[in-house]
């Protein structure tokens, strides 16, 4: 995957993360792109806003994309390394690639995904890391809840 394209797609997820934070939620954003580069769906973590523990960013982007005949060739873009729940979603539906903004503040299941044939593009994005660090410092209880601590 071309890094310039990966970063352009990440910008969609970052916009979603900012939107989630502005709503009083957790600043994690995601987007699902088709094999042809079409944006299929986008979303942000809505656990707080909806009172729904399953409303992770990747899940909301996946739901926004609607039903697809197949997910082979698609790319999930996320501002933060996907947790086990979201990693399971990627595996279950055969999403081919995951672009990860950062994995410093939380290291989820992207190594496991790679071991199972999913292409992982880890961008080490400074803006994504700063968003999460700031949030974790400001709301440590909510951050701990989100990552299962």
Characterize the structure shown.
This protein is of the alpha/beta class. The protein has one domain: 3-Layer(aba) Sandwich (Cytidine Deaminase, domain 2), CATH 3.40.140.10. Helix content is 46%, strand content 18%. The chain is built from 7 helices and 5 strands, in the order αββααβαβαβαα. It has a 5-stranded mixed sheet. Strand 1 and strand 2 form a beta hairpin. Helix 6 crosses helix 7. The mean pLDDT is 96. One of its GO terms (biological process) is nucleobase-containing small molecule metabolic process. It comes from Streptomyces venezuelae. Homodimer. This is tRNA-specific adenosine deaminase. One of its GO terms (molecular function) is metal ion binding.
Task: Provide tags for this entry.
46% helix; 7 helices; 149 residues; globular; five-stranded mixed sheet; alpha/beta; 18% strand; Cytidine Deaminase, domain 2; 5 strands
Largest sheet features:
5 strands, mixed
- The Cα radius of gyration reads 14 Å
Q: Fraction of residues in helices?
A: 40-55%
Any idea what the shape is?
globular
Q: What's the CATH H-level superfamily name?
A: Cytidine Deaminase, domain 2
Mean pLDDT across every amino acid position: 96
Q: Architecture, according to CATH?
A: 3-Layer(aba) Sandwich
What count of domains describes the coordinates?
A: 1
Q: State the total count of DSSP E strands.
A: 5
Distance between the termini: 34 Å
* Strand ordering within the main sheet: 2-1-3-4-5
CATH topology: Cytidine Deaminase, domain 2
Number of helices: 7
In the predicted model, the low-confidence regions spanning at least 5 consecutive residues are none
The helix-and-strand class reads: alpha/beta
Oligomeric state of the chains present here: single chain
Q: CATH top level?
A: Alpha Beta
Protein name: tRNA-specific adenosine deaminase
Subcellular location: Cytoplasm
Keywords: Cytoplasm, Hydrolase, Metal-binding, Zinc
Pathway: Pyrimidine metabolism
């Amino acid at each position: 995957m071309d890094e310039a394209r990966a970063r352009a797609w990440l910008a969609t997820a970052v916009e979603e993360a900012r939107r989630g934070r502005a709503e009083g939620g957790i600043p994690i954003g995601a987007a699902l792109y088709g094999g042809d580069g079409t944006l299929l769906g986008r979303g942000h973590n809505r656990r707080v806003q909806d009172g729904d523990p399953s409303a992770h960013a990747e899940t909301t982007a996946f739901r926004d994309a609607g039903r697809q005949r197949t997910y082979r060739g698609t790319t999930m873009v996320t501002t933060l390394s996907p947790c086990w729940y979201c990693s399971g979603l990627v595996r279950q539906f055969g999403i081919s690639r995951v672009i990860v903004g950062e994995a410093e503040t939380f290291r989820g299941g992207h190594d496991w995904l790679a071991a199972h044939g999913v292409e992982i593009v880890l961008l080490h994005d400074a803006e994504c890391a700063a968003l999460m660090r700031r949030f974790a410092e400001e709301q440590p209880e909510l951050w701990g809840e989100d990552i299962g601590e």
